[in-house]
Amino acid sequence: MAVLNILIHPDPRLKKAATAISEITPDLRQLADDMLETMYDAPGIGLAAPQVGVGQRILVMDCVKEKGVTPRPMVLINPAITWQSEDLATYEEGCLSIPEQYADVERPSEVTVTWTDLDGAAQQESFDGLWATCVQHEIDHLDGKLFIDYLKPLRRQMITRKMQKLKRERARA
């Protein structure tokens, strides 16, 4: 397994919708393993393929954060939200592509998602709490949308400028 390079906003690849995956290949399995390794290393609770420069509809997530609780790594291929609650929940979201920036985002509090797993089997699960927020955030990445797109323009521009400065600093290092 390898830790992949995470793209930092602004990067045009983060704003492109990812393409559907038509078959599960050994390369795709390797990508899933590498994405999980990258997510845990970051550390984060979710990562979508566009964040590592791959324009395919695959995401990984694991919202188990409590010590002593068994991790629950998940790989979702071609995920789709098939139902969402009318009730909304607000979580302070962050993003591995927008490091050290956080903002409250309001989303449906519960969602049902369908996807294909690494064995090619169709899956469906309902998520709530942090899991619901995470899966919606990562599916947004697959659609070329970032959590800052939910913010007011001034706040979004301020965060974008901070990321541009961070990228310049990293380029000099």
Quick recap of the structure?
This protein is 29% helix and 29% strand.
How would you name the CATH homologous superfamily?
A: Peptide deformylase
Q: Tell me the strand percentage band.
A: 25-35%
The helix content is 25-40%
Spatially, the strands of the biggest sheet line up as 1-2-3-6-7
Question: How would you characterize the overall build of this protein?
Answer:
The protein has 173 residues and is of the alpha+beta class. The protein has a single domain (12-172), classed as Alpha-Beta Complex (Peptide Deformylase), CATH 3.90.45.10. It contains 3 helices and 7 strands, in the order αβββββββαα. The chain has a 5-stranded antiparallel β-sheet.
Topology overview:
Blueprint: H1 26-41, E1 46-48, E2 58-61, E3 74-84, E4 88-95, E5 98-108, E6 110-116, E7 122-128, H2 129-142, H3 153-172
Antiparallel strand pairs: 1-2, 2-3, 3-6, 4-5, 6-7
Annotation keywords:
173 residues, alpha+beta, Peptide Deformylase, five-stranded antiparallel beta sheet, two-stranded antiparallel ribbon, 3 helices, globular
